[in-house]
Amino acid sequence: MNISKYIDYTLLKSTATEREIIDLCYEAKKNNYYAVCVNSSYVALAKQLLLGTSIKVCTVVGFPLGAMTTQAKVYEAKKAIEDGASEIDMVINLGFLKSKNYVSVLKDITDVKLAIGNTPLKVILEISEISKNEVIKACEICLDTRADFIKTSSGFTKSGATLTAIKIIKKTVKDEVKIVASGGINDIGTALKFIDAGVHRINTSVELKAESVSV
Q1: What is the dihedral angle through the alpha carbons of 187, 189, 192, 197, rounded to the nearest 10 degrees?
Q2: What is the pLDDT of residues 98-117, one digit of tens each?
Q3: CB 70 within 8 A of CB 111
Q4: Which of 65, 140, 137, 81 is nearest to 114 (CA)?
Q5: pLDDT tens digits for 48-75?
Q6: Which pLDDT band, with edges at 50, 70 and 90, does 213 fall under?
Q7: Is the CB of residue 157 less than 8 Å from the CB of residue 184?
Q8: Neighbours of 51 (CB within 10 A)
Q9: What is the pTM of this model?
Q10: How far apart are CA 13 and CA 38, in angstroms?
Q11: Distance in angstroms (rounded) separating the CA atoms of residues 48 and 91
Q12: What residues have CB less than 8 Å from 56, skipping those under 6 apart?
């Protein structure tokens, strides 16, 4: 198994410079990662830098709060695809979820999914901000929307992925939706634990050397 093919190599901080995006893409190519994940303003640059490779360009919408209108998320997602994004990561509306306004949560995700067609959609739950029951409910909604992935975290809250949360998500969605572990995964040993727990992708901002991750 080559862990490098699980990795979404990520740089989403607001101060990210063009030079840092160039370095991100260079390191992704050097290590043959699955994807890079950048803010939408850098999608076109990343796409240009990765031409001729199999590395995907992923971007985020409704990020990091998830509290903007569905129409804004839809526009951002469609524009990102026009600019070259091949995967979309969206943050759910946590306020709607906590209000038990499940119809609005479902519509928010569904509208983005319909707008992007066959482009894979990852739905960020932000597990540190919601209860176990809310995690389960959000996963059930993701099943109904036919989202492609459930992602644990944005990386912008107090904690990231946990093995406990992965087990809850996996038990709820079984093999119907793929799982992305995101947040706090900074070494190969931790990444392996999440892969063993059943995740399909690892989101990390730390360069995990390709030569050291083949096992």
Answers
A1: -110
A2: 999 999 999 999 999 999 99
A3: yes
A4: 81
A5: 999 999 999 999 999 999 999 999 999 9
A6: very low
A7: no
A8: 8
A9: 0.94
A10: 9
A11: 26
A12: 34, 35, 36, 86, 87
3-class SS string, the chain: CEHHHHEEEEECCCCCCHHHHHHHHHHHHHHCCCEEEECHHHHHHHHHHCCCCCCEEEEEECCCCCCCCHHHHHHHHHHHHHHCCCEEEEECCHHHHHCCCHHHHHHHHHHHHHHHCCCCEEEECCHHHCCHHHHHHHHHHHHHHCCCEEECCCCCCCCCCCHHHHHHHHHHHCCCCEEEEECCCCCHHHHHHHHHCCCCEEEECCCCCHHHCEC
Q: Tell me the C-alpha distance between 108 and 76, whole Å.
A: 13
Length of the chain as a residue count = 215
**C-alpha distances in Å from residue 57, one per residue of 1, 28, 51, 165:** 23, 11, 10, 26
